[in-house]
């Protein structure tokens, strides 16, 4: 049973996709999205995870992509990295979104050409720790 089945039954999930429980608290700061020109260049997302709690723990930084094509989900998981952080400490994270990867992060299926294609438009990069909590965003315009 998927999310849409639950919605059809009038049931909203308690937690968004990617939500995880922890014994400590984290902040994801200093997020930047670096893209070179062109639709085929990798996009690098960097940030710093700080453990603001009193015990050691792990956080999963997640990168989602909003594809500007009708019928696509609002957010598509395109990368993640799990980091272990001691209390009061910080660790850098780097997640690369490779347009040439087998999961076609920027692509949509084109039935006419029978292949994945990247459509022009404004792609929104979301960074956070679950699909429901992505406080950092950046927009990439692909021509």
CATH class: Mainly Beta
What's the total number of strands? 9
According to CATH, the fold-level topology is Immunoglobulin-like
Helix and strand pattern? HEEEEEEEEE
Estimate the mean pLDDT confidence: 89
Roughly how many Å is the radius of gyration? 17 Å
What is the helix fraction of residues, given as a range? under 10%
| Straight-line distance between termini | 37 Å
- Structural class, by secondary structure, is mainly beta
Task: Enumerate the spans where pLDDT stays under 50 for 5 or more consecutive residues.
Answer: none
Please state the overall shape, judged from the principal axes of the Cα atoms: globular
Largest sheet: 4 strands, antiparallel
Task: Give the spatial strand order of the biggest sheet.
Answer: 4-3-8-9
Kindly estimate the percentage of residues that lie in beta strands according to DSSP.
Answer: over 45%
Q: How many independent structural domains?
A: 1
Structure annotation, total helices = 1
**What is the second-level CATH architecture?**
Sandwich
Relevant CATH superfamily:
Immunoglobulins
What this model shows, in words?
The chain has one helix at about 5-10, and strands at about 25-35, 45-50, 55-65, 75-85, 90-95, 110, 115, 120-130, 135-140. It is mainly beta and about 140 residues long. The protein has one domain (about 5-140): Immunoglobulin-like (Sandwich). Strands 4-3-8-9 form a four-stranded antiparallel β-sheet, with no helix packed on it. The model has no long low-confidence stretch (mean pLDDT about 90).
């Amino acid at each position: 049973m998927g999310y849409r089945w639950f919605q059809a039954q009038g049931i909203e999930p308690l937690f968004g996709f990617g939500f995880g429980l922890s014994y400590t608290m984290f902040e994801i700061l200093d997020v930047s999205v670096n893209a070179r020109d062109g639709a085929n260049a990798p996009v690098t997302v960097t940030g710093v995870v700080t453990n603001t709690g009193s015990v050691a723990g792990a956080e999963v930084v997640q990168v989602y992509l909003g594809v500007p094509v009708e019928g696509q989900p609002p957010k598509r998981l395109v990368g993640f990295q799990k980091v272990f952080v001691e209390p009061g400490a910080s660790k850098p994270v780097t997640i690369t979104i490779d347009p040439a990867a087998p999961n076609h992060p920027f692509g949509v299926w084109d039935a006419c050409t029978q292949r994945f294609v990247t459509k022009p438009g404004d792609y929104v990069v979301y960074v956070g720790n679950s699909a429901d909590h992505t406080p950092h965003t950046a927009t990439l315009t692909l021509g």
